[in-house]
């Protein structure tokens, strides 16, 4: 028998044996370093350090054991400090204008219609009206050896037209595809090509491309067989239109020019089909079905008795196009029928989804009680505190209690009256539709009460109290009935706006009356600090208009100019900042004489000087305002030539004698001032927009020239131009208190705004009460 000790060690014997063998092998593989080798290594390092011959330097490695205690040396002499280029590692990063470009995200679809010089002013216009609002981008192509638009033959407005120098139909199709590939290959994923002798349902084209993969090489349309022994496949009929993917365009367009001479065909569509089959070696031909999406078209030639009005709606539900059409009337009739079918389909989808929501609501924790009305619309906004409660605005058919300022009751505007008329008519129509099966006739007597509010989660909500006359078989009766209506928020769309920059030069016009002479001193001091000593001084040109009345003009002849001090100040600024002889004045000025300093009279003088071009950006300012770069940038961004004028709402200080918290530096506080909604003194607009509106107004006021004094710039743009007048609170525009001179010669509207601005600009109600009753607390 084995001894008991060995038996106990039997379990760890393999471990001990493994450790022993491992240690032995490690000793065998360890390198043996001789003393001579160490000396050679040290010598080589010493020689290397000597070869470098660096002043005030130490060897990279210690030459002996005595030098192992290394002490760092502090370099005091700046000439010996290593020079580091801090800009070396800073690379200029060029970012894309849009994040979609940087991420490689492309738009969905670009559409093109091939027309002709004979139909570009008829069928092409009809196509643009019926198809253009559905498409992200719509282009029109045709060929002509001569200039197509000359003399009385003008280019149709609002259409993107490309004219090819070829009149051959095959070459026109090739040039169209090549143009789309060259200009939009990196922008869009899908390309639609159609002809103007057909009607295209734009919503169906969008529906197809929105449900397909962009990686497929696809040629989708209405297939027709190629009758040829050499090529077996299908091409897409041109009259029905076709869709090509970007992947296919990238694969075939670099070589497609070879098809112009190498392939013969009777029609452009057959030529394209043959070309694609040849270039893709038979892989890509025309198909009408892809990923459950079907491309169908209505051939109007097959049925001579076809009537758009009476044809079955099922025929239009899946059709993408209909062909051929010969007149614009046919295009509009088809568009009307396709739109009706689309609306019916949309309502059916809404009803189906509402039923599904009802069925699923029973399985939710809230049950059917959790359903919001209308079904499918977000529930009402739930405020978290009393400041977030949305108030209801009261109105009737003519007036409302929600008015600007402190007016208790005001008349509805024309747009508000139209809105009230529409919702009342809708409510009565729905009631008639609901109770007509019960043989009840409902007529509106009047709108008793109305309430509305805007819910950010739902839209505009209405509650109407209607007085109705109900007629039944047994007689008539009158009753009051409350109805709830909701105008839900639709799909959010980005409104296309012209591109503007913050580099546009601003021409600041500053009218100054005799009463504002002292305010001009403060303004010039602020202007010098904010503009004249800054690097952006060349982008701001200030022009001062000194306004003299009849009495002040007489004093000028007597050498008693009320603006003497101000003009001397301008001369000092000219000496200080006017460095070049031929350079225009730093702050030019001019004088005008008028007893009614209206905005239009002042601007007419400016325009007549012809010192400003039509594309000049004007900023009409006030000497009581503080200007800064933020205000200038906001002016540049919000004033758009031919599109928009900007009327900022300034923050105006209260009267210092009434509001004790008012200081020299303007602070935006409720106790120091308010946003004056009745002030239209400051505005940004383009000279071309003013001249266009002024010309239109001049035609109206030929018989009465005094009308120019009864209208201000805001009313001019509102009544005599198509500009969008943008009115918004502007925190960068701060203005000191002033007492306006409300002349009765300036019209009722201007006088009313002037008086209300004076009244509300005195102070808060508390401050006014403390001023009136100082002894009461």
UniProtKB/TrEMBL annotation:
EC number: 2.4.1.-
GO molecular function list: glucuronosyl-N-acetylgalactosaminyl-proteoglycan 4-beta-N-acetylgalactosaminyltransferase activity
Keyword Membrane attached: yes
Membrane topology label: Single-pass type II membrane protein
Subcellular location: Golgi apparatus, Golgi stack membrane
Transmembrane segments: none
Coarse class of the protein's main subcellular location: Golgi
Domain of life of the source: Eukaryota
Broadest EC class assigned to this enzyme: transferase
Keywords recorded for this protein, A-Z: Golgi apparatus, Membrane, Signal, Signal-anchor, Transferase, Transmembrane, Transmembrane helix
Protein name in the entry: Hexosyltransferase
Annotated organism of origin: Oikopleura dioica (Tunicate)
